[in-house]
């Protein structure tokens, strides 16, 4: 009876939080195809203006990788009406901050301003879209920036090339097989005309969503949006090739040597379905169950109790077309990656065989509820989520409903997902090791 009361109480608390967090928004299209989403929140005098473009590294030519990430930088160089080097000065001098980021699937730009500067933000983003200056000096400057970023964050960073090593072995046909930062050799070989062509194809209003969130007056905002974005010419329709990967039917074995490390890492990686599927959400539960925090199954067993690993973890890497589920471990002295793999596989086998406990299930629901609340706790997060759900999921209402999908996933579905996707013959086993002279194990 006590368990029943606790379960009912937990459910009521969760549903109450969901209701309290409901995000209201309005969406519409301009004649040029730009999708607009407005979320009004007058609780603080701040407004976020963001544009998400449906272009990421998966849209690149295999021989010209790194372009989407390159444009994340290049489109801050200047426009017809914003002099080179003045973008950040304009933002900061008007009390704002801005940034951008790129994934395999999309590129996202945003400004956070005091609410009295909404018109300025809209003008700047329309300038980026309508009047970008793409010239040789900007391209050469950003090539050097990308080189430095790649050297410091990937090539010379301990364990900095894990994702690269996993992706190139897990994908054969799909453009997910290369990393977002791409190849500096490809960027060096690219000509100015290549960058202009990429911009003309992908940075068009009908391949983007504009989100305004925060403290603003909707009628005025709509007028400014029409004035600044309405005149922009619609681009050609983008036809994307669909890349299909054959199922993995036997273990892929690979080795990657990292000269920046001393402790080898064992990595077990699985190709998973699109983030839009229920199965992807069930795998999110599995990732949290196995390795989210020090109370997770793998950490408690392998790090705390058996002291076989310095670190253990798992991450569900969700993307638009496919995903990756990556489990990794750093062995303690006198143990090997195979020792860790055996322990990891035992826990996965339990997931495939038995239902997780009701207590663990409720813990997962609470964890994901907290994530949902935190993700939508400020207008910056809300703005990005509104853009993401429209552009990548095709349903803005998921900003309110996605958590309900998680709530509806059963313990049986978690077990089924583990059985379906996490089998030894469906994975990559990657030995991520130091150069031989550094490997003392």
Automatic annotation (TrEMBL):
Domain Peptidase M16 C-terminal: 192-367
Pfam families for the chain: Peptidase_M16, Peptidase_M16_C
Signal peptide limits: 1-20
Keyword Signal among UniProt keywords: yes
InterPro entries linked to this entry: Metalloenz_LuxS/M16, Pept_M16_N, Peptidase_M16, Peptidase_M16_C
Entries under PANTHER family matching the protein: NARDILYSIN, NON-CATALYTIC MEMBER OF PEPTIDASE SUBFAMILY M16B-RELATED
Keyword list, A-Z: Hydrolase, Metalloprotease, Protease, Signal, Zinc
Transmembrane segments: none
Name assigned to this protein: Peptidase M16
